[in-house]
From TrEMBL:
Top EC class, one word: transferase
EC number: 2.7.7.19
Name assigned to this protein: polynucleotide adenylyltransferase
All residue ranges annotated as the Poly(A) polymerase nucleotidyltransferase domain in the record: 16-210
Catalyzed chemical reaction(s): RNA(n) + ATP = RNA(n)-3'-adenine ribonucleotide + diphosphate
Comp. bias (Low complexity): 603-615
InterPro entries assigned to the protein according to its UniProt record, in alphabetical order: NT_sf (IPR043519), NuclTrfase_I-like_C (IPR011068), PolA_pol_cen_dom (IPR007012), PolA_pol_NTPase (IPR048840), PolA_pol_RNA-bd_dom (IPR007010)
Stretches assigned to the Poly(A) polymerase RNA-binding domain: 363-421, 422-494
Domain Poly(A) polymerase central: 215-359
Keywords: ATP-binding, Magnesium, Metal-binding, mRNA processing, Nucleotide-binding, Nucleotidyltransferase, Nucleus, Transferase
Family of this protein: Belongs to the poly(A) polymerase family.
Length: 762
């Protein structure tokens, strides 16, 4: 069981594809701050107790013995001779946070079972081994997921959570001293085995490529904790997961090999605030390899060109570990990097402390409008399966909204789910919504994402293991109507009594931006009690340009001040969500004072020369050739931020060989066109009528009724939850049908809701 032993450091050799930025060591002040950081991390409970550590080791030892007994049993059952039965072996490896040494109390242990060629995944691993585990009293919550992209078996062993993968090698006998870091281990293996082995191979390679393992571990613990507090820790939600943060931290350790953790945290924010995505982050050169496996290479693989924040794994076959990142989640993370950089600078001037850096992000105070996605099932097992499927598809909803609104409506997915204790077998997800900032608000501009939501629900409901009772509901809910079960203890918190870093910065921004509040088309102020005008500066990124170059994207006509959706053909009159009437109708977030264009990564004028650190092929590898020698800043000049900035620029100055064309659409959105074409064809075969909206004297949102052929549409005056259901798929005879040659029906967006049949107005 285990992985090859590694020392505490890899000093004496240059690590990484460039020279370090600085070789400077710590000052006495840095030593003090590093101790403060370690004490802080201990006080917040990031380290497990000695008793728990021993328990984990015992569980892993027991699991290793179980798989050895399992492989001997199946070898005998398959008729192998007694000598082969006695030699039959399987071995447990660990990876992820446990292998990296940064796991906390109660964390899962990521494990890999490596078995011989005659031990199959389907029959033996998910069959016989699953049966053995299910009969053991120490095992609970056993949940196999054989159809996952990386097949996995989840369970608890003596209360310790285990995620177990399986890799079937081409060997008849698995040696006890097997080294899975060798590329030859991948020969004659299937894709699922390659993916399963990847976690262990990447984890071990990371530990080999950092100059000081202990400093790396402390820094990574810090950054993982920070990311969770700031709501940007989740691969499935479109942010970054554990392996992504590990790679980003490892690269900073390479660039500052003699720095202590407090210095590395500060440099982390400084470097990635200046990083121009999609320049890839790489710990080593990308090897072509001799096995013909596909590697990340946007010059050869068109789909790789869509990746907005490439973070490349160091083990063959190298791949982008952060392909889930969208333009919205990238913008959110770059905002957070900027915030972290500002706080670290303030800490150096004794104007801030670690509490400010780790201040929790108040997600449910940050926006005026949210999407609430509720899912339910009939029992725990069904909910677990349904939940896993829906979570894997939530990213599509973000991508669809971005694409269908031409990136004008921005989404912020919450990385976790929430349980309502009053409703069994149910959970909820939330997304914050706001208008793209820095763009003038046109009079009468509207957003209607009903059809977008319906597309998403359509894709979710294609689940092959769907069972009766598995349901999904998507609603628009305003901040003041967020359900109480999302808050700790089920109680909505009052306004914070003391000023926080975020509230102080927001107040400063509010004051500085107040002078421009009378400009036409802008929404005034921070209204509706938004944490003292709490804001995030949203940076544009080159993803806008990329998405607009996609095959199915069409430009909104400049003459159209209002964009409208609903259903193609326009069966209903959408209710207006105007910039100067935010509270009454809901969707528009105030235009903020800061200009987005000041973010380095947001430059739309970035040329193809700025898009990668890869610039040549040598000896079968993609290698980085530094354009300038003497990259690192000397110890004497390490305090110069200008010199450091120049060094960071040099790291990213190598071009891709190929241009950045985008001939294809991202794979996860390819189902859109087929679905929308179906909607259009249905819409062209029906006729419908509409009624003019009617509003009450109190200025409540308008009520829009149908003619009885379909559900009515209503935006409730109370401003509470609004169900987003499909609009009528009918077309008005007075509106001409769009030409067939259009690549995609023009989409107009507006937030409305469809009431149930009982809510129809007569």
């Amino acid at each position: 069981m285990g992985s090859p032993g590694l020392g505490t450091g890899n000093s004496g050799q240059r690590l990484g594809i460039t020279e370090p930025i600085s070789l400077g060591g710590p000052t006495e002040y840095d030593v003090i701050k590093a101790r403060e950081l370690e004490k802080y991390l201990q006080n917040v409970g990031l380290y497990e107790s000695q008793e728990e550590a021993v328990s984990r080791e015992e569980v892993l030892g027991r699991l290793d013995q179980i798989v050895k007994n399992w492989v001997k049993a199946i070898s005998r059952a398959k008729g192998l001779n007694e000598q082969l039965v006695q030699e039959a072996n399987a071995k447990i490896f660990t990876f992820g946070s446990y292998r990296l040494g940064v796991h906390g109390p109660g964390a899962d242990i990521d494990t890999l079972c490596v078995g011989p060629r005659h031990a199959t995944r389907e029959e033996d691993f998910f069959g016989e081994l699953h049966k053995m585990l299910s009969e053991m009293p120490e095992v609970s919550e056993l949940h196999p997921v054989p159809d996952a992209h990386v097949p996995i078996m989840k369970f608890k062993f003596k209360g310790v959570s285990i995620d177990l993968l399986y890799a079937k090698l081409s060997l008849w006998v698995i040696p006890e001293d097997l080294d899975i870091s060798q590329d030859s281990i991948l020969q004659n293996t299937d894709d699922q085995t390659v993916r399963s082995l990847n976690g262990c191979r990447v984890t071990d390679q990371i530990l080999r490529l950092v100059p000081n393992i202990q400093n790396f571990r402390t820094t990574l613990r810090c950054m993982r904790f920070w990311a969770k507090r700031r709501g940007v820790y989740s691969n499935v939600a479109g942010f970054l997961g554990g392996i992504n943060w590990a790679l980003l931290v490892a690269r900073i350790c390479q660039l500052y090999p003699n720095a202590l953790p407090n210095m590395l945290v500060s440099r982390f924010f400084r470097v990635y605030t200046q990083w121009r995505w999609p320049n890839p982050v790489m710990l080593c050169a990308i090897k072509e390899g001799s096995l013909g496996l596909q590697i990340w290479d946007p010059r050869k693989n068109p789909k790789d060109r869509y990746h907005l924040m490439p973070i490349i794994t160091p083990a063959y076959p190298s791949m982008n570990s952060s392909y889930n990142v969208s333009s919205s989640t990238l913008r959110i993370m770059t905002d957070e990097f900027q915030r972290g950089s500002e706080i670290c600078e303030a800490m150096e001037a004794n104007k801030a402390d670690w509490d400010a850096l780790f201040e929790a992000y108040a997600f449910f105070e940050a926006y005026k409008n949210y999407l609430q996605i509720d899912i339910s099932a009939e029992n725990d097992d069904d909910l677990r399966n349904w939940k896993g499927w829906v979570e894997s598809r939530l990213r599509q909803l973000t991508l669809k909204i971005e694409r269908h609104t031409y990136n004008m409506l921005q989404c912020h997915p919450h990385p976790g789910d929430f349980q309502d204790n009053s409703r069994p077998f149910h959970c909820s997800y939330f997304m914050g919504l706001q208008r793209k900032q820095g763009v003038p608000v046109n009079e009468g501009e509207q957003f209607d994402i009903r059809l977008t939501v319906e597309e998403f629900k359509h894709s979710v409901n294609t689940y092959t293991l769907w069972k009766p009772g598995m349901e999904i509901r998507v609603s628009h809910v305003k901040r003041r109507s967020i359900p109480s079960f999302v808050f700790p203890g089920g109680v909505r918190p009052s306004r914070p009594s003391k000023a926080t870093w975020d509230s102080r910065r927001a107040s400063d921004a509010k004051v500085s931006g107040h002078a421009g509040s009378d400009k036409s088309g802008e929404v005034k102020g921070a209204a509706d009690g938004q944490v003292d005008g709490k804001k995030r500066k949203r940076a544009d990124d080159n993803a806008d340009t990329q998405l607009k170059n996609s095959k199915y994207i069409t430009a909104v006509p400049s003459s159209s001040a209002e964009v409208q959706v609903g259903s193609p053909g326009g069966t209903v009159t959408p209710c207006s969500l105007k910039g100067d009437n935010v509270d009454a109708t809901g969707l528009v977030e105030p235009t903020r004072g800061k200009d987005e264009s000041n973010m380095t990564n947001g430059s739309k004028n970035s040329s193809t020369e700025e898009l990668s650190s890869l610039n040549s092929e040598v000896d079968g590898s993609l290698r980085y050739i530094p354009p300038h020698k003497g990259l690192h800043v000397t110890t004497d000049a390490s305090s110069s931020k200008e010199a450091e900035k120049l060094a960071i620029e040099q790291i990213m100055s190598g071009p891709y060989v190929s241009d950045q064309a985008f001939p294809e659409e991202p794979e996860e959105l390819e189902d859109d066109l087929e679905f929308r074409n179906q909607v259009v064809s249905v819409g062209n075969t029906n006729n419908g009528s509409q009624q003019a909206p009617v509003s009450d004297a109190a200025g409540a949102a308008p009520i829009i009724s149908s003619n009885g052929a379909g559900p009515s549409i209503s935006l409730h005056a109370s401003g509470s939850i609004e169900e987003l259901e499909p609009a009528e798929l009918t077309a008005m005879t007075s509106i001409p049908v769009a030409p067939v040659v259009q690549k995609k029906p023009l989409i107009r967006l507006n937030f409305t809701s469809l009431g149930k049949a009982s809510e129809k107005s007569g």
